[in-house]
Design brief:
Number of helices of chain B: 6
Number of helices of chain A: 6
Structural class of chain A: alpha/beta
CATH architecture of chain A: 3-Layer(aba) Sandwich
Order of helices and strands of chain A: HEHEHEHEHH
CATH architecture of the largest domain in chain B: 2-Layer Sandwich
Radius of gyration of chain B: 21 Å
Radius of gyration of chain A: 22 Å
Structural class of chain B: alpha/beta
Oligomer: heterodimer
Largest sheet of chain A: 4 strands, parallel
Number of domains of chain A: 1
Distance between the termini of chain A: 91 Å
Largest sheet of chain B: 5 strands, mixed
CATH class of the largest domain in chain B: Alpha Beta
């Protein structure tokens, strides 16, 4: 073994008569292909969207076809956080903690109008106006609630996004860094902008008094 | 809060000549037959009973707010009333700056198949204080805490009057008051900043979750099973 000449790394010789098979590919593609087809979801279901999510995962729509064979109810073994339903302020630190417990690489899907924007009808004192004010979100699935086809479309969009990632781009894997004092990870002005009211003024009271 | 659990049959205390319960028909909006308890309350408490309303066959008694504790105690203990179930405690505020806030108690007498609604009026501009019925109905615990959380009504005598739905350090006020803005008083970023600085694991005190502390209050058969070392969920 030690006596054989060192092979030239840049030259691949193939003997057409041998039975060996060869596949050449890019490492990026291979890793992304593996990641995109084994996304384990961490379901964070708080409302009616979770019912549609359960239907998506059940046998009729069968989320397992897309590699989501296993619901990961522990954030430490999960790849994609699916927030299905409205998030009240009281749950905001919880979903933030779950997101921080998930290891890289990780993605987030905001399923439904409440998780995406607060849904207008919940434009009140108790509900977070879109979870993108708490954690970074990759795919928004509109609908109230979205049908299972809608969620699957969102998941396939996420798979496309994963397939287009480059390992050389280290910024993709940056951990969210909240401001140590305010715990916000985007500017307060931006939060006020994305959670713009849908018609309820800040000064409007219930009775118009 | 007795040690033994006694099943209560609905209507078992009624005399035998009372007709079997049926869905009432042609109930007038106003002025139907009042619950006999209303007259008994007048006889017992006199001035403390301000007014009796019958709406859709349901009797509402407006009572003096400081007498609520004694009235509910009497309704619960009296052998001819036996209101043993407190189904709801809530409050109502109207779109009128002058009209007082109403605190509402829904009481039900299972042995007599009776329902009564007590209301106490709290004038605006004064501290909203009513007596607690916690020592009469343990189930009033969270009902009163919710009412305090949403309306800011203090229940005098409640042992642990903390916010129930909103987190305990919530600073914006009482959300179901009419003068409370729908989106809250602070901006969205300020609301998020306040809640994200909370520790998500500091929501419950250990006394609430500790079964050992509640051991003496558990039913005897459960004490016996737990005492033998039975474990659930392992």
């Amino acid at each position: 073994m030690g006596l054989s000449p060192r092979p030239d790394a840049n030259v691949v010789t193939v003997d057409p008569q041998s039975q060996e098979s060869w596949v050449t590919t890019r490492l990026d593609f291979l890793v992304n292909w593996g990641r995109a087809n084994s996304l384990w979801p961490m379901p964070f279901g708080t409302a009616c969207c979770a019912i549609e999510f359960m239907a998506t995962a059940a046998s009729k729509f069968d989320l397992a076809r897309f590699g989501m064979e296993r619901m990961s109810f522990s954030p430490r073994q999960a790849d994609v956080l699916i927030c299905a339903g409205r998030v009240p302020f009281k749950l905001a630190p919880v979903i933030r903690r779950i997101w921080q417990q998930m290891p890289q690489p990780k993605w987030a899907i905001a399923m439904g109008a409440c998780a995406s924007t607060g849904n207008g009808i919940f434009d009140n004192y108790a509900v977070v106006q879109g979870i993108d004010t708490i954690i970074p979100v990759d795919v928004y699935v509109p609908g109230c609630p979205p049908r299972p086809e809608g969620l699957m479309y969102g998941i396939m969009m996420l798979q496309k996004k994963v397939m287009s990632e480059r390992m050389a781009d280290k910024s993709l894997r940056n951990e969210m860094e909240p401001d140590p004092r305010s715990q916000l990870y985007i500017a307060p002005a931006l939060i006020d902008e994305v959670s713009e009211n849908f018609g309820n003024s800040v000064h409007q009271t219930r009775s118009g008094l | 809060m007795s040690g033994t659990f006694l099943p209560v049959l609905a209507g078992h205390a009624e005399s035998t000549d009372v007709a079997a319960p049926a869905t009432p028909r042609n109930v007038p909006y106003h002025g139907g037959a009042a619950n006999p308890t209303a007259d008994a309350l007048r006889a017992q408490f006199g001035e403390a009973i301000h007014r009796v309303d019958v709406v859709w066959g349901e009797t509402t008694v407006f009572v003096d707010r400081m007498q609520v504790g004694a009235i509910v105690r009497w309704l619960h203990d009296d052998a001819q009333q036996r209101y043993d179930y407190c189904s709801d405690i809530t409050a109502v505020e109207y779109r009128d700056l002058e009209r007082p806030i109403e605190v509402v108690w829904h009481l039900r007498s299972i042995p007599f198949r009776r329902f009564i609604r007590l209301k106490a009026l709290l004038a605006k501009g004064q501290p909203f204080v009513v007596p607690s019925v916690y020592d009469i109905y343990r189930g009033a615990d969270w009902l009163e805490r919710e009412c305090y959380d949403m309306f800011g009504i203090r229940f005098e005598g409640h042992p642990d009057l903390r916010r129930l739905l909103m987190w305990e350090q919530y600073k914006e006020g009482y959300p179901l008051r009419k003068d409370f803005p729908l989106r809250g008083r602070f901006s969205r970023s300020e609301q998020l900043r306040q809640i994200l600085s909370q520790n998500p694991e500091a929501k419950y005190s250990m006394e609430e979750l500790n079964v050992l502390e509640a051991f003496d209050e558990l039913p005897a058969d459960m004490r016996q099973r737990l005492g033998k070392g039975e474990r659930v969920g392992e």
